[in-house]
Design a protein that fits this description.
single chain; 106 residues; alpha+beta; three-stranded antiparallel β-sheet
């Protein structure tokens, strides 16, 4: 086996089916956890509609949830360097402290 074969074997291939590629719009997330899992429900809240509908549920091991948090923090910092600060209405500006004590907001 040559070096190129080793590199190709070590790469993870990811398939993105067409029906998933379009994505689902969500403007609300509910995060719950147990000792073994984090559950993130992504929902869509619409004006005049009394019930929010969950569009996707993701279940993660705690280690993967922490990796996701780190990846989101890194990407938000990159985004803000390129496009400017993301402003959240009615919230004081604050820095994102990695894995510090925070409220469970989404």
């Amino acid at each position: 086996m040559n070096e190129n074969d080793n590199k190709q074997q070590g790469q993870l291939q990811i398939e993105l089916p067409a029906e998933v590629a379009q994505g689902e719009y969500a403007n609300f997330a509910i995060i719950t956890h147990s000792s073994s899992d984090f559950v993130i429900d992504f929902a869509r809240v619409l004006p005049g509609v009394p019930k929010a509908q969950v569009k996707s549920r993701i279940i993660l091991a705690p280690e993967h949830a922490k990796r996701l948090l780190g990846a989101l923090q890194e990407n938000i910092m990159r985004y803000e360097r390129e496009f400017g600060l993301i402003k959240i209405p009615n919230q004081e500006p604050r820095t994102i402290a990695p894995f510090g004590p925070t409220k469970g907001e989404a």
